[in-house]
Structures are given as C-alpha cells and as structure tokens.
C-alpha cells in the first residue's frame, strides 16, 4: 500500500487528529483501473457534497486526481481510499476557526470479490442492529461508522455475503457496505436516505443512468416485506459493482429479471 | 504534551487504524492532580465497561495507571486522555478475529476553566442538533462524536458555556460535554441514558455519593419544561467538576439550593 498524507509520502498521522478523536471527517473508496480512478466525476461530486455538509474545506479535484494518479501509476486494478478530516484543533468539540484539514490518499492492491457473485448472486441476511435516525448526518460517508461495525460483527459465515439493515422505524435502509434496490417491472425502488444510511456514488450514477435503459429509479419508504414482492433485489457499492441478491435469510428471492444484468453491462463500459 | 502509544513514546499512529477509519474505539478524559489521575477507580470502571460493550479487550488497570503515572510525574494539575481503538485490521467493517488494540495515553497541561464558573454558575443554551437514538451505543464514550461536534458548532460566543441537547424524542439527554441534573428538594433527577448520551464517570460517582448528603439521585425521562421547575440545575464532567447553571437561553434559572455546593465540597475532598 502506498499513501500520501497532505501530499507527502507516509502513513502516520498524529493521534491528536480530530478524525481519530471524534470521527470528524469523511472518506471514499474508489476502484482503480489502469492507473485511473473509475467513475471519478461521480466520486468527487459525492466527496465534495459530503465535505460541504460537514463544513470541511472541499479539496481541489485536480489535486486529488493528481495524488491518486501518482500512487496508482502502473496499477492495473486496485483500490484507492481518500480520507479527509478536520485536522488538529484545540481540545474540545468546537470546530477550529482556522481548519487545517488532513488529506489521506492511499492505493492498495485489489482485494477483490469473487466475480461469480455478480453473476450468480449473493446470500444476504437481516442484521439485528437497527440504524439510528439523524438527518444531519444521513447519507454522508463520514468516519462515525460504529453502527456498521456492529452490524457486520453479527455474522462470520464466509458464505453469507451481506447484511440488510432496518432502522429504528423498521424501514429498510441499506446493507452494511452497499445500497439496495428493488426491481418491479420498469421501476426500481431504493430507500430514502434522509434519516440515515450512506449515499454511495453508484446510487447517484444509477439515478442518472437507469432511464436510458427504460428504468425509473425512485426513492421510497420500504419495509422488509417488500423484498419478497420484488422481481429482483440487487446491491451496489463502488468496489463490488452490482450484485443481484440470490437468497435472503436462506430463502431464494425471485431471479431472472434482466435489470441488474443490463445495468452491469452499462457499468462495465464506464471508465 | 507527552504521549505513549502502546507503551512507547510517540504521538503518531498509522492512518490504517480503525479508530480513524470507523471511530472504532473509546476514550476517557481524566484530571491529573499531583501526578495522579483523580477518581481513577471510577474512571477505570467506566473505561472497562465501555470497552466490554464494544467487545474491545479491556486493558489492565495497573498498566494504564503506570503509563499515566510515567507521563504525569511532577505534573501538579493536568489532563490525561486514554484512547483505546480496535487497532489495524483488514479492509472492511468486520472486527478482526485477532484484535491488536491501539492504546494511546497522553498527559497535557491543564487547559483550565475559570473557577468562577463553578461558583457563580454558567450560561447554557439549547442546541438545535437532536441526538439520535441507538441503544447499542448509548452511554458509551466512543469515538463517534460527530453529533457533539455539530452541536458545539452552533455557537461561538465565549460567554455561552454549554449547550443542552434534546434527542429525537424531545427528551433532555445531556449537554455537549457534560451530564445534567435537576434538583427538586432532596431528589436529583438526571436523564436516562439507555438510548443515547455519554455516561460520565462523575455521574456514576454522584449516584454513589449523593445519598450520604441526604440526596436521592434518580434517572428519569425529562422534558425541556422541567428545567424551569427545578430548584437548581447543574452539570458534571471530569474536568469541570460540577457547574451550577445560572441562565438558560438568557433567562435566569432558580439558584440558592445548597445541593451543588454540598456536592462540590464533597468532590473537592476526593483524590
């Protein structure tokens, strides 16, 4: 793994950084292909939106792209991670008046998921962990991720690939590391993320791209029962791409709708 | 400031630590007096309880005490901070099977609050930020503190000393960095922390010590209106001690009940 911290090679930060003290920052995980970050415009747009929501200075797109490019040079397939924190401040929660953010850019080897998951579908379960509701943080890929850690700790079976999360209201929100979609004819429904959840870059991309395949992607309040009424359920995440869901809690879900396959084909064409 | 990381002098950690990536850890802030951590037994009990709740290995009390003692040697008054994270793991939320926690112990100069606040009382305001409800994390002093950061960012007036927080249900929970108490005769009421909030060490101490002064400390569901019916409102935190509240949102609150003064006197005798 190679890393730049505020542009300098290294992988150490001060333990006084607010990213550690309070989780006061954001991040993105980005696929690298042939030395370049995939879907960069979508990634950057989301990074910038999240930074603005937390009143973090938005780093320059060209600067980030240059730093990723330095580390990704010659990398055929890999994973970049960008972490942006509010840097070091005086003790206490108050945001420093003169914020000197910490910018961490790293590129590591492609950890890879078996490609048959995208083809054959994945097994998912319900998590007991229920997401809290906090509109001020909803959708942001921030560094306060203990709920995801607790949810992911509920299982260790390697044949169970993801866990679905309800929130305190009983609504379906997401899976531990991916967004979720329910296909019904030409409609695709995905949970509203105005109370909780992480707005993945591919979710934005799907909103923009689904119509050209004749699909209408819409936000909805979705309960767990609606998963069984869908013609297909699939997941998205910048590293996994799109995964159809084969089984939920050990029961087969409907398969065979072409939607996920069509979207996968469209996604495969993207740089 | 002096720091030990896993017992070694230094103040740098790897940017791959889960404390940074996910806020996957806990901390305590501890007053140092004459080279020793004050109310250590209470601090350690809470640290150990929080670690257990997050399934972090609980560090040995003697080890922590030794490390604090090394750094605090000769310090008349100072601030120690202990941060404990789940260390470095593979990518992803899953807890590493073989957890190698990161233990950071630091001692810095006494930042100090003006002593007249404890005597004359403080000015508090309402925060617009509402705490979310998450029983799995409630009470724990974990590293996911963005709600506190947002709440504390709501004001910058140095004469406003704390901000009170309601939760999504509209119940009073705490202030941004302190617990809150309402005195009514010989009863002291404090918010239940089973859905959110941070269980401060002094809150535990008050539960144990208040009876010897003839006070009964009880948890309750408290709404904002009850602050105006209390004979006294006060705050607790390991560095501020106990602060009576003089004004709320610019209006004077009832003063003159001896409770806070009596508890301050008892606290002053503690090592």
Automatic annotation (TrEMBL), chains A, B:
Q: Which GO terms describe its molecular function?
A: 4-amino-4-deoxychorismate lyase activity; pyridoxal phosphate binding
Q: Pathway it acts in?
A: Cofactor biosynthesis; tetrahydrofolate biosynthesis; 4-aminobenzoate from chorismate: step 2/2
Assigned keywords, A-Z: Folate biosynthesis, Lyase, Pyridoxal phosphate
Q: Does the keyword Lyase apply?
A: yes
One cellular component term (GO) for this entry is:
cytosol
EC numbers on record: 4.1.3.38
Catalysis performed (reactions): 4-amino-4-deoxychorismate = 4-aminobenzoate + pyruvate + H(+)
Which enzyme class?
A: lyase
Q: How does it assemble?
A: Homodimer.
Q: Which family does it belong to?
A: Belongs to the class-IV pyridoxal-phosphate-dependent aminotransferase family.
* PANTHER family (alphabetical): AMINO-ACID AMINOTRANSFERASE, AMINODEOXYCHORISMATE LYASE
> What is this protein's name?
aminodeoxychorismate lyase
Q: Which organism is it from?
A: Aquitalea magnusonii
């Amino acid at each position: 793994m190679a890393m730049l911290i505020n542009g300098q090679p290294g992988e150490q930060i001060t333990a006084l950084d607010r990213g550690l003290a309070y989780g006061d920052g954001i991040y993105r995980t980005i696929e690298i292909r042939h030395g370049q970050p995939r879907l960069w415009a979508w990634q950057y747009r989301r990074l910038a939106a999240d930074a603005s929501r937390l009143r973090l200075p938005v780093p320059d797109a060209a600067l980030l792209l240059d730093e990723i490019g330095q580390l990704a040079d010659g990398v055929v397939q890999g994973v970049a991670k960008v972490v942006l924190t509010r840097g070091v401040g005086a003790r206490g929660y108050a945001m420093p008046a003169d914020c000197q953010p910490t910018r961490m850019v790293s590129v590591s080897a492609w950890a890879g998921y078996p490609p048959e998951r995208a083809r054959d579908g994945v097994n998912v379960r319900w998590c007991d962990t229920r997401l809290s509701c906090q509109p001020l943080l909803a959708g942001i890929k921030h560094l306060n991720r203990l709920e995801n850690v607790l949810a992911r700790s509920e299982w260790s079976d390697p044949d169970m690939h993801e866990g679905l999360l309800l929130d305190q209201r009983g609504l379906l929100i997401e899976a531990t590391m991916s967004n979720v979609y329910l296909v019904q004819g030409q409609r695709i429904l995905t949970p509203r993320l105005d109370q909780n959840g992480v707005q993945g870059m591919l979710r934005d991309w799907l909103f923009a791209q689904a119509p050209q395949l004749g699909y209408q992607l819409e936000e909805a309040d979705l309960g767990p029962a609606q998963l069984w009424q869908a013609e297909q359920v699939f997941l998205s995440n910048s590293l996994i791409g799109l995964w159809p869901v084969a089984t939920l809690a050990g029961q087969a879900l409907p398969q065979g709708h072409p939607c996920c396959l069509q979207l996968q084909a469209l996604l495969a064409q993207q740089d």
